[in-house]
Amino acid sequence: MCCGDGDCRPLGFLLGLPFALLSLLLSIVGAIIWIVGLLLTCICPCCLCVTVLVEFAIELIKAPIHVMGWFTSKIPC
Fold this sequence. Notes:
Helix content is 78%, strand content 0%. It is mainly α. It starts with 9 loop residues before the first helix and ends with a helix. The protein has helices at residues 10-43, 48-61, 63-74. Helix 1 (10-43) runs antiparallel to helix 2 and helix 1 (10-43) packs antiparallel against helix 3. It has a domain at 25-74.
């Protein structure tokens, strides 16, 4: 996996795969929370706490991308 600035870190990518798989599981949980939160928001749009829950779920869904980016930036070629 090569980054946009020209430095290549394939070792960081391979070492980060277990963490990416764990964060992928978290993103699946986030997708379920997101769907339930959207349904609750449609039923009662006045619930502010459901909106916060949906925003948290979106961050969980983005977790694998953040983990892989962070992990590959920490390990040199």
